[in-house]
Amino acid sequence: MNDMTSRTPDSDMVLEVENLSLEFADRDKVTYALDAVSFSVGEGEIVSLVGESGCGKSVTAMTIMGLLPKHGARVTSGSALLRGRDLLQTSEREMRRMRGDRIGMIFQDPMTSLNPVHTVGMQISETIRKHRRVSRGAAEKRALEMLDLVRIPDAASRLGAYPHELSGGMRQRVMIAMALACDPELLIADEPTTALDVTVQAQVLDLIADLRRDIGMSVILITHDLGVVAGVADRMMVMYAGRIVEQGPTEKLFADPAHGYTAGLMRSLPGVNARMRDELREIPGSVPRLDRKIEGCVFAPRCEFSSETCLAPLPQAQERAQGHWTRCIHANAVCEAMSDNDIVRAWA
Amino acid sequence: MSVYDQVSATRGRQGGRISAAAGYLAANPATAICFGVLLLFVLMAVFAPLIAGDPVKIDPAQRLTGPSASAYWGRDHLGRDVFARAVYGSRMSLLVGFSVAAIATVFGVAIGIYAGMSRIGGAIAMRLVDAMMAIPAILLAIAFAALMDAGILTVIIAISIPEIPRMVRLVRSVVLGVRQQPYVAAAISIGTGGLPLVWRHILPNTLGPVLVQATYACASAIITSAVLSFLGVGTSPEVPSWGGMMADARSFFRIHPELMVYPGVLLSLLVLVVNVLGDRLSDALDPRKMVRGSV
C-alpha cells in the first residue's frame, strides 16, 4: 500500500463518505444536487448506488473522483475518505496521482469513452506509465495481461487495434482494463452496462464481479437498473433527489423495503410470474425541482404512505436492522404493505 | 511465441501507416494526380536553376519576342525569359504558401488550444481574434508589408498574421467540442492531466480540421502573395513572382495575353491542387476512415 495514506487504524472501510452536500451555483440560480449523502464501501464489497436520472448518482461519483468543474460545483459540507484520506481536501495534483492508481472509473458509453486516435494498447499503457516507472515494453506487456484478464479473445492482436475496430462490449472491457491496470482499491462503475445489449451486459457484470474477487477491489456500481443490482451488488443505496433515502443489504431491500420510494421502485418491476395483461405499477408524479432546500421528506409528494408529518424537518436516518438504514418515518407501514408482495419476493 | 514477440508483432502493424497511405493514394486517383502535380511544382522550385535560364537578365533588344530555343515561352517587355521567371516564380509561391501554413498552424493551434481550455484567457484571446478578423486580411498584410523592410520574410509574416486568427477560431471551436468528449473524462479518470492531456488526447483530435485549414491557409497565402506582388508591395520587382509577372503583363494584355496566362494558369493550378489535397488528406489521416494495409 502507499505511504501517502494517512490511515485511521480503526477503520476497515475503503471509502467513507460523510454528510456530503453539494450545490451547483449558476449566476442567479442554485441547484442543491446532493444533500447530506453518507455511505461507506468495505473491503472487496460491491455497493450499488441506485436511482433515476438526475438523482445525484453520477454527481456523487464525480465528486469522489474530483472530476466536477471547479467553477459552478461547490461542496458545502462533508468529506469523502479513501482509507482515511479526505479526497475533497486533496489538491488537484495529488488527485491526478490517485486517479487511475488508487481509484479507477469506467463510464456509461464505451463507444465514446476511448480516444479514437490511439490504439487500445496505447491507452491501457498510458495508465500504467502514468503511475508506474516502467519501460514502454513492460507497460505493453502489462496491457496485454490486462486484455487477457478482461477476457478479450486474441488479446495480442487487439493491442494494436483502434477503438472503432472493436464492438461495444469489447470496448467496455478495454475501459475496465484501463481502469484496473494499476490495481486500484476502488472501482467506480458509472452505468457500465447501460449502453450494452443484454447478453453483453451480463458478461460485463460477471467480469466485474469476478475481478472484484480475484483482485480484491471494492466497487461502487452506479445504475438505474434494479436487475443489475440484484445480480451483483452486496449492498445497495437508493438515491432520490440528491439524498440517500434507504440503504442496506441487497436482499434485505428487495425483500423488505422500508422507504416509500424503494417500495415504489420494487412495485414497478415486472414479476417472474407476471402475465402480459398485468400492468406495471408506476410511481405517480415527477421528481422535485432542486432549486430550493427541502426540509422534509423529498419523496413525500409522490408517496402513497405520506402524511402531514413527512413535510416537517426530517429526523436522522433510522437503523432498522444491522446495516439497514431508512429515512422514512413510515417505514413500518411500508414494510407491512410490501410484505405480501410476491413480485418483490420473486426478485429477492 | 513469447509475450514480447506478440507485442512487437503488434507494434509492427502500426508501422503500416505509410503503406496504408500509399494504398489510399492508389485507391483515389484524383488525389494521386493532385499529389503528383504538387510534387512537380516542388521539384520545379527546387531544381529551377537546372530547368531554366537566368530569370532576371534583361535583354531589351529581344523584348516581347515569341517563343524560341533560348526562351520557350518568349520574352517579356524587358526581354526577360518568361519561362525562367515562371519557374523561379514557383519558389516564391511555394515558400510563402508553406511557411504561412506552418506559422499559422503553430501559433493558431497553440493560441486556439489555450483559448479552448482557459475560460478567462480564452475570452480575452477570442476578443482580440475578433478584432483582428474585422480588418480585411489583404489590408492588414499591406499595412505590415509597408511597415517592414521589403523582402520575402516580410511577405511571409504579413500574410501569416491575418491567417492566425482564423486558425485560432477553428481550433478553439474544435477543442470546445473535444474536451466534452467522454474519452477526455476517461483520460482524466486515469490520472492524466495538464499538458499530457492536451498533447495526447485533445491535440490529436483537432488535427483533421487543422490540416484542412492549414492547406486552405497555404492556398490563400499563395494568392495573397501574388496579390501583394501584383500591387508591388513586399518584394522588389526583379524577384521573380507570378503576381509580379501578371502586373508587368497587364500593359501588354491586348497584344501579348499569353504573358498573363502563363503565371495565371500556374497560380490557379497550384492553388487548386493544394485545396483538393487538403480535403482528401483529412480523410486519409483519420484512423476511422483510413484504408488499412494488410494485417
The CATH architecture designation of chain B is: Orthogonal Bundle
Number of domains of chain B: 1
Quick one: biggest sheet of chain B?
Answer: none
Distance between the termini of chain B: 18 Å
Helicity level of chain A:
25-40%
Outline the low-pLDDT stretches of chain A.
1-10
Annotated CATH homologous superfamily of chain A: P-loop containing nucleotide triphosphate hydrolases
Care to count the β-strands of chain B? 0
How large, in whole angstroms, is the Cα Rg of chain A?
Answer: 21 Å
CATH topology of chain A: Rossmann fold
Highest-level CATH class of chain A: Alpha Beta
Oligomer: heterodimer
Structural class of chain B: mainly alpha
CATH architecture of chain A: 3-Layer(aba) Sandwich
The spatial strand order of the largest sheet of chain A comes to 6-7-8-3-9-10-12-11
Largest interface summary: A-B, 42 and 32 residues
CATH topology of chain B: MetI-like fold
> Mean of residue pLDDT of chain A?
86
Order of helices and strands of chain A, N to C?
EEEHEEHEHHHHEHEHEEHHEEHH
Strand content of chain B: under 5%
* SSE-based structural type of chain A: alpha/beta
Protein architecture, described:
The complex is a heterodimer of chains A (348) and B (295). Chain A has 348 residues and is of the alpha/beta class. In chain A, 32% of the residues lie in helices and 22% in strands. Chain A has one domain: P-loop containing nucleotide triphosphate hydrolases (Rossmann fold, 3-Layer(aba) Sandwich), CATH 3.40.50. The N terminus of chain A is likely disordered. By secondary structure, chain B is mainly alpha-helical. Chain B has twelve helices and no strands. Chains A and B meet through helix 2, helix 3, helix 4 and helix 6 of A and helix 1, helix 9 and helix 10 of B.
